Amino acid sequence: MEGRTLITYYSWTGNTESVAKEIQALTGYDSIAIVEKKERKKNNMPLSALTALLGLRSGLKPMDFKLEGYDRIILGGQVWAWHTTPAINAFISRANFKGKKVFLFITKADDKVPQKVIDSISTKIRSKGGEVADSLSITTTMEKVIEANEFREELSSWLKNNGLI
């Protein structure tokens, strides 16, 4: 029997948060947002994309990076300019994934699976003792926050296939 599962995610425009909230609604797992110390301006995607391209890390508000008491982590983030966000970079660099099974969900604005981002995150998590079991990418837009009915079937299937519900 698996131990406890935590949903943790970074969401700038609300799409990743929408998916995380639906995961929580379907599973009842604990959930915590990864929040940057300095609020990112919503109208400045070019600068945000540049910070992702450069592989920068954000300052984060305090949270438990030890992830104690959890055996499985469902980690959500988005793709900016085909890279991970500074908040996810910072979280992964500080989190203790030793012995943890990690499931990734990625929101992105195009139809392609962001394999480069998934591989990059997976490598970083493995280097910190974790195992990435599977990933899911969900296409969204920047114009509006995705609604659960737009991805619920795909998400439910992914969760079931991974024994998360």
Automatic annotation (TrEMBL):
It comes from Youngiibacter multivorans. InterPro entries: Flavodoxin/NO_synth, Flavoprotein-like_sf. PANTHER family: EXPORTED PROTEIN-RELATED, FLAVODOXIN-LIKE DOMAIN-CONTAINING PROTEIN. Residues 5-163 form the Flavodoxin-like domain. This is Flavodoxin. SUPFAM superfamilies: Flavoproteins. PROSITE patterns: FLAVODOXIN_LIKE. It comes from the Bacteria.
